Amino acid sequence: xxxxxxxxxxxxIQAWYMDESDEDQRLPHHRNPKExxxxxxxxxxxxxxxxxDADNYETDPELKKIREARGYSYTDFCEVxxxxxxxxxxxxxxxYEEHLHTDEEIRYCVAGSGYFDVxxxxxxxxxVWVKKGAMIVLPAGIYHRFTLDSNNYIKxxxxxxxxxxxxxxxxxxDHLPARKQYVEAFVEKVVDAAA
Length: 195
Fold this sequence. Notes:
Blueprint lengths: L12 E5 L21 H6 L3 E4 L9 H10 L3 E7 L7 H9 L2 E2 L4 E15 L5 E7 L2 E5 L5 E5 L5 E7 L8 E2 L6 H18 L1
């Protein structure tokens, strides 16, 4: 009898439903009891992920394949920590404000760790913990936010299709075409299938 193989992404990405606590945003915020979220559930929300070789990101053939297949032609790096990010306190507050983008948000964690929080179909928060080696794609139009974890450090490669565009639209922005397309593709599609 064959054993079920473990998804290698579990080493660098974990997801769970968040509690409603107002405690420090950098804490895990697990529900009690803990409610973990599968990669399949994230996929259903349009959230894609990979485990990559962060020690060799310059030459990693898997990253190259993903970039070519998805058209990610531009990259840069962002280090988020009090010592490296100008206006750290203001920026971390802005990152944690619920927002969406009109393009995908692609982040590849090459050092450190942090949390991307995304809304599920019922508006509950799912916390996605990314660690070194995790690459995550948030689809255009999904409401989300970001914060560091208690390690207070992440270095992420930001990837873009064409010129870098990173304009956050704080909630509510349901009238934007990207939001309408997201709802149609990932929210209504499943609701209709269940009916």
